[in-house]
Amino acid sequence: MKFVMGETPVLKKPVTPPPPSLAPMELVFEISQFLYREARILDEERYEEWLGMMTEDIHYWMPGIQARHRKDKTPRLDPKRMAFFDDDMLNMRRRVTRFLDPTAWAEDPPTRSVHVISNIESELTDKPNEFKVYSSFVNCRGRGDVEEFWITGRRTDILRRGDDGMLRIASRLIVTTQSVLLAKNLNVFL
């Protein structure tokens, strides 16, 4: 679509999005409850239990976001560029171990955190035990007496049902709305 500066572009033809492969309502409810429970477990700093909600082959990725003009066709999310998180289970365990260590001065006194999860969409995939889940989040963290930091964004998860019947996070892509995180640290999982 080409337009001249000052002119309003006109869309030539609306495009209908492809229909999603919707999950049954019972599964949608189960997935929603899973994500809400995960948020509460994180807020309560029950990190070992949180790790138990993941598969052993987890990929937890939060790429850095660059503000780019629309004409710049460089991929927005590039695994070769900087990431806040680009972790497997070993690295996730290391992060949790660090959070729980008594010498973690950045967490003493502990951060007060609230995760709000919304806009949950659940889709079936070509694998009967895996589900693609979209959600939005707001994370608010309070530190000390007056510090407050917010992170907002969207997530795309692959949830996998294990042999035990439990859902677990097999991968998570986190895309924040901020290109620069204003918090002093990133002592939080999203």
Q: How would you describe this protein?
A:
With 190 residues, the chain is an alpha+beta fold. The chain has a single domain, classed as Nuclear Transport Factor 2, Chain: A, CATH 3.10.450.50. 19% of the residues lie in helices and 35% in strands. It has three helices and six strands. It has helices at residues 25-43, 47-51, 89-100; strands at residues 54-63, 83-87, 112-124, 130-143, 147-161, 167-176. A six-stranded mixed β-sheet has the order 2-1-6-5-4-3. The protein is globular.
The SSE order reads HHEEHEEEE
Please give the CATH architecture. Roll
Radius of gyration: 19 Å
Q: Which structural class fits the helix and strand makeup?
A: alpha+beta
Question: Which CATH class is shown?
Answer: Alpha Beta
Indicate how many domains the architecture comprises.
1
Number of helices: 3
Spatial strand arrangement across the major sheet: 2-1-6-5-4-3
